[in-house]
Write a structure and sequence with these properties.
Catalase HpII,  Chain A, domain 1; 678 residues; Rossmann fold; Hemocyanin, N-terminal domain; alpha/beta; 3 domains; 16% strand; ten-stranded antiparallel beta sheet; 18 strands; 17 helices; single chain
Length: 678
C-alpha cells in the first residue's frame, strides 16, 4: 500500500485508461459506426436541402455546439501540470494526514495556476492575483489546497465576494476593461471597503506581474487546523516556496509581452517541463498552538492579515515537483474541480468567515460548471476506492450494481458501512462554538492599516518606486476625481510619504488623517530577499553573418553548463554561417521575437555587420538595458556598446576571455536586474 512507485503511478494509470489515441485508426461516430464520408452532409440531391435524418451530421454539429462549458467566473484563465509531493519527515506530531507521514511515499498532485480577474482570453501578463491551487491524490481521499500567490485577500467575509468580483470585472455598460483593475468600479469598491487596504499594496507590487509560474509563491490564505491522532489541534497556514526564487517582470515588460506573446506563462511552463526542467516548490507551514490564538495584535482568522514570519516561522516540511504536462488541456486543466472543502482526516476547518463561505460556493460552482458527477471525471477521481449511495445525475460514469441505494439497510447488510474515527473515518474536530446569532464583524477584525504599513516598511526603495508608479497608473485610468481622492486619503492612513507621492502624480493632496504608527518590517515580504539562480534563464544571442563561430560555441557551452538557455537571434529565420562557413540554426528573427522575452542578451556581432542587424541589435540592447537586464558582448560587439554609452555600466559584461566572460556574465544573469542604473 505504501510503496512509493506504485502509489505515484496509480493516478497516472487511472488517467491513461481514459486516453484515446486516434492515430492510424478508422473514423467512427461516438457510437462506433465507421464513417465513409465526413466532408458532405446527406442531401436530397447534390444541390438539395440537407436531410434531418443525417445522424452523423447531427452528432458532429451537436457535439461541437457543446464543446465549451461555462468558464469560471473567476480564475478563468488557467494552466496546469501533474507532479508528485513528498514529505521530508513524518508530521505525526501535528497531523494524522496519511500523505504527511512517510518520506518515501510519492503522492500524485495536479497544480492549476490561474488569474483572478480576466476571462480565458486575457493576456497572461496582466497585473492580477495568480491562483495557486493544488490537488493531492492521497490514499485517504483528495485534499485540495486552493490558494493564491498572495497570502491575504481583499475581504473578510465571503458574502462580499460577489460584490468584489462584480467591481473588478469589466464594467457592465461597456464591457471594458478586460482583465484589469485600472477602472472606476474596482477602486470605488476598494475605497468603500477599506479592509482591502493591505491587499491593494500587494496587488500594486511586482508580485502580480510574475516572471514565470515557476517563480511565484503559493499560499493557502486561510487558517486551517492540523489534528493529530491524539485529538490535539493546532492552527496552521500553508505556504509554497519556489526553489527558483521569487521573480517578476517590470510593468513595461508585462505590457509588451502581452502583445508579443499573450501565452507567455503557459508556454514557459510547458517548454520547461518538456525539456526536463521540472519546477519545484517546498511546502511550508506556520503553526500556532490553540492556546496562543489570542496572543497577537491581529486576529489569526482574518483573511486580510498574514502571520509575519518573524513572529511565526515557516517550517518547510516537503517538496512538490511538476514533472508532466497534461495530455489535454480541456479534459484536465479546464475540468479539474478544485475546492477548499476537500480535506482529509488530520486537516480541518476554522471559523474564518471567508473560508466558511467558500466551502459552499466552490461545490455549487463545480456542480453548475462541470456537472452533477464532476468527481467521477478522470482528473478529479480519487486514487482510493469510492463507495456511497449517491446515484444517477447528468453524465454519470460509474455503473452501480445492486438494488440498495440507501442507509440504513438490511438487504445489503447495511453496506456501504460507516467507519469509526479510530479505524480511519473522518471526524470533525470538536471546536467550541458559542455566541448569539448575529450579522456582525468581530472587533478584532477592525484594524485595516497596520499590516499595510508593515508591508510598505518591508519594501526596498525600488519596490516602493514600483508600487507608487502602479497606484499612479491605476488611478490615472479612473475617471472619477472623487474616487482618486478617496484612494489617496486611504493611502495616507498607511504612510504619508506613499500618499503624497501618489497624490503628486495625480495633482491631489492627501487629507490630514491618522497614519499607522507601525515601525516594524518583515524581510520575508520583500522580493529582493530571494534566491538568485541561473537555472532556465533565457539569453538572447544576437549573431550576424560571419560571426566568430569557435569563440561563440565555447561561450555558449559554458553558459549552458551554468544552467542558462541561449536562443540564437538574427536578421532572418533559418540558417546562418559563421566565419568558418559552418551553419548554425537561427531560433528566432528580429521580426518574430522581442527583447522582453529574454532575461539577458549576448551580442556576438561580426567583422562586417549588416546595417539592418546593427539597427535591430541596437534596439534590442537599449530596451534590455532600460529594463535593467544583464548584457554581454564579444569583442566585435563592444564597439556598439560604446556608441550607446553603456560599456562599463553595471551589468554590462564584455568578452576578452571566453572563460572569464562566461563566469562574470553568468553571475550577472543570476542577479537578473541591475537597479543601480536608475
Amino acid at each position: 500500500m505504501n510503496e512509493p512507485f506504485n502509489n505515484e503511478n496509480k493516478k497516472t494509470e487511472q488517467l491513461k485508461s481514459f486516453i484515446r489515441d486516434n492515430t492510424g485508426k478508422p473514423l467512427t461516430s461516438n457510437e462506433g459506426i465507421k464513417i465513409s464520408d465526413d466532408e458532405n452532409s446527406l442531401k436530397a440531391g447534390d444541390r438539395g436541402p440537407t436531410l434531418l435524418e443525417d445522424f452523423l451530421f447531427r452528432e458532429k454539429l451537436a457535439h461541437f455546439d457543446r464543446e465549451r462549458i461555462p468558464e469560471r467566473v473567476v480564475h478563468a484563465r488557467g494552466y496546469g501540470a501533474h507532479g508528485i509531493f513528498q514529505v521530508y519527515e513524518s508530521q505525526e506530531e501535528l497531523t494524522m494526514a496519511h500523505f504527511l507521514q512517510d518520506p518515501s511515499l510519492k503522492t500524485p498532485v495536479f497544480l492549476r495556476f490561474s488569474q483572478v480577474a480576466g476571462s480565458r482570453g486575457a493576456n497572461e501578463t496582466d497585473r492580477d492575483v495568480r491562483g495557486f491551487a493544488t490537488k493531492f491524490y492521497t490514499e485517504e481521499g483528495n485534499f485540495d489546497l486552493v490558494g493564491n500567490n498572495i497570502p491575504i485577500f481583499f475581504i473578510q467575509d465571503s458574502i462580499k465576494f460577489p460584490d468584489l468580483i462584480h467591481a473588478v470585472k469589466p464594467e457592465p455598460d461597456n464591457e471594458i476593461p478586460q482583465g484589469q483593475t485600472a477602472h472606476d468600479t474596482f477602486w470605488d469598491f476598494i475605497t468603500s471597503n477599506q479592509e482591502s487596504a493591505a491587499m491593494t499594496l500587494w496587488i500594486m507590487s511586482d508580485r502580480t506581474i510574475p516572471r514565470s509560474f515557476r517563480m511565484i509563491e503559493g499560499f493557502g490564505v486561510h487558517t486551517f487546523r492540523l489534528v493529530n491522532k491524539h485529538g490535539k489541534s493546532r492552527f496552521v497556514k500553508f505556504h509554497w516556496k519556489p526553489l527558483l526564487g521569487l521573480h517578476s517582470l517590470l510593468w513595461d515588460e508585462a505590457q509588451k509581452i502581452g502583445g508579443v506573446d499573450p501565452d507567455f506563462h503557459r508556454r514557459d511552463l510547458w517548454e520547461n517541463i518538456e525539456a526536463g526542467n521540472y519546477p519545484e516548490w517546498e511546502l511550508g507551514i506556520q503553526v500556532i498552538e490553540e492556546e496562543d490564538e489570542y496572543n497577537f495584535t491581529f486576529d489569526i482568522l482574518d483573511a486580510t492579515k498574514l502571520w509575519p514570519e518573524e513572529l511565526v516561522p515557516v517550517r518547510k516540511i516537503g517538496k512538490m515537483t511538476l514533472n508532466r504536462n497534461v495530455d489535454n488541456v480541456f479534459a484536465e486543466t479546464e475540468q479539474v474541480a478544485l475546492h477548499p472543502g476537500n480535506i482529509v482526516r488530520g486537516i480541518d476547518f476554522t471559523n474564518d468567515p471567508l473560508l466558511q463561505g467558500r466551502l459552499f460556493s466552490y461545490t455549487d460552482t463545480q456542480i453548475y460548471r462541470v456537472g452533477t458527477n464532476f468527481q467521477q471525471l478522470p482528473i478529479n477521481r480519487p486514487v482510493c476506492p469510492v463507495h456511497n449511495n449517491q446515484r444517477d445525475g447528468n453524465a454519470r460514469y460509474v455503473i452501480d450494481q445492486g438494488k440498495v441505494a440507501y442507509h440504513n439497510n438490511s438487504l445489503a447488510n447495511n453496506t456501504p458501512y460507516t467507519v469509526p474515527g479510530t479505524k480511519g473515518g473522518f471526524v470533525t474536530y470538536p471546536s467550541l462554538v458559542h455566541g448569539y446569532k448575529v450579522r456582525a464583524t468581530a472587533p478584532s477584525f477592525d484594524d485595516h492599516f497596520s499590516q499595510a504599513k508593515l508591508f510598505w516598511n518591508s519594501m526596498s526603495p525600488v519596490e516602493k518606486h514600483h508600487i507608487i508608479d502602479a497606484y499612479s497608473f491605476e488611478l490615472g485610468k479612473v475617471n472619477s476625481i472623487e474616487i482618486r481622492q478617496k484612494l489617496v486619503n486611504m493611502l495616507a492612513h498607511i504612510d504619508r510619504v506613499l500618499a503624497t507621492r501618489v497624490g503628486e502624480n495625480l495633482t491631489l493632496q492627501p487629507a490630514e488623517v491618522p497614519e499607522s504608527t507601525v515601525t516594524e518590517s518583515s524581510p520575508a515580504l520583500s522580493m529582493m530577499n530571494t534566491r538568485y539562480l541561473t537555472n532556465t534563464l533565457k539569453v538572447g544571442v544576437l549573431v550576424d553573418e560571419g560571426f566568430a563561430g569557435e569563440e561563440t560555441r565555447e561561450v555558449l557551452e559554458m553558459l549552458i553548463k551554468n544552467g542558462l538557455k541561449p536562443v540564437i537571434i538574427s536578421v532572418r529565420n533559418g540558417m546562418i554561417r559563421d566565419d568558418k562557413g559552418d551553419q548554425w540554426v537561427v531560433n528566432a528573427s528580429f521580426l518574430t521575437t522581442s527583447p522582453v522575452l529574454y532575461d539577458g542578451l549576448y551580442l556576438v556581432g561580426s567583422e562586417n555587420a549588416d546595417p539592418y542587424f546593427i539597427n535591430r541589435a541596437r534596439a534590442f540592447i537599449v530596451e534590455s538595458y532600460n529594463h535593467f537586464k544583464p548584457i554581454g558582448s564579444s569583442p566585435l560587439g563592444e564597439k556598439l556598446l560604446q556608441e550607446l554609452g553603456i560599456a562599463g555600466k553595471p551589468g554590462v559584461v564584455t568578452n576578452h576571455s571566453a572563460n572569464v566572460f562566461s563566469k562574470v556574465f553568468t553571475e550577472a544573469m543570476a542577479k537578473q536586474r541591475f537597479w543601480d542604473r536608475y
